[in-house]
């Protein structure tokens, strides 16, 4: 056997490394109790609402969380009560990217098992994201350089192309999911778009250079 042969010792490709990390983090997320997820949801709400960019915003895009993701229900409702227009991802045929306007908690419905909840109103096209002053995205992990690990569909990497250039992109993660880019960088591929900030239950942290 030579070291250069069939390479079972080679470094994993970024997509393989991502798949492994996703499996580990999803498993960890399943351990978190309902009570802790509930407490985290209130903290996410409070930290996001305190951001100056959010205080000045008239339109904010927020994902509608699935059960083990950082919970956005209280945040979405609080923005709505403030009179902020909230844009929520809508998946069209073939996971086509679009947006719906939040109209109240009863209007957010899971259309199929495992799918994120969606509002019932009109399907607004992908360019609608340009109306958002702040964009809150899901992440399984981020690193301090702003690299984001998502669910692996590439949905947000494609959607964010339509964002207003100066709209901050804010990821929500649990506390142990922020990594030091100097010692523990996330795998990054050329299409990966960075995020500007991460909110954990502990607070808000600026990312990037
Ligand atoms: N809450 C939330 N919304 C989001 C994202 C996300 O990560 N979280 N996305 C981030 O990119 C985009 C789309 N994400 C999707 C997530 C799952 C499926 C999906 O097809 N799920 C499977 C069930 C999987 C399961 O059981 O866990 C299915 O419907 O068959 C599609 C899109 C936009 N909206
Ligand atoms: N802008 C893009 N154009 C073409 N393909 C892309 C683009 N962004 C991502 N993809 C493809 O989508 C797949 C998943 O990408 P990636 O692993 O970066 O997803 P993710 O950012 O973790 O997921 P998500 O944004 O859905 O949470 C990859 O196969 C990638 O090649």
From TrEMBL:
Entry's Gene Ontology molecular function annotations: 5-formyltetrahydrofolate cyclo-ligase activity; ATP binding; metal ion binding
Pfam families assigned to the protein according to its UniProt record, in alphabetical order: 5-FTHF_cyc-lig
Residues annotated to bind substrate: 69
Taxonomy, superkingdom: Bacteria
Keyword presence, ATP-binding: yes
EC class of the enzyme, as a word: ligase
Cofactor(s) it depends on: Mg(2+)
SUPFAM superfamilies: NagB/RpiA/CoA transferase-like (SSF100950)
Biological process annotations from GO: folic acid-containing compound biosynthetic process; tetrahydrofolate interconversion
The entry's keywords: ATP-binding, Ligase, Magnesium, Metal-binding, Nucleotide-binding
EC code(s) of this entry: 6.3.3.2
Keyword Metal-binding attributed: yes
Record: residues binding ATP: 18-22, 148-156
Catalytic activity from the UniProt record: (6S)-5-formyl-5,6,7,8-tetrahydrofolate + ATP = (6R)-5,10-methenyltetrahydrofolate + ADP + phosphate
Family listed: Belongs to the 5-formyltetrahydrofolate cyclo-ligase family.
Protein name (record): 5-formyltetrahydrofolate cyclo-ligase
Lineage: Bacteria, Bacillati, Actinomycetota, Actinomycetes, Micrococcales
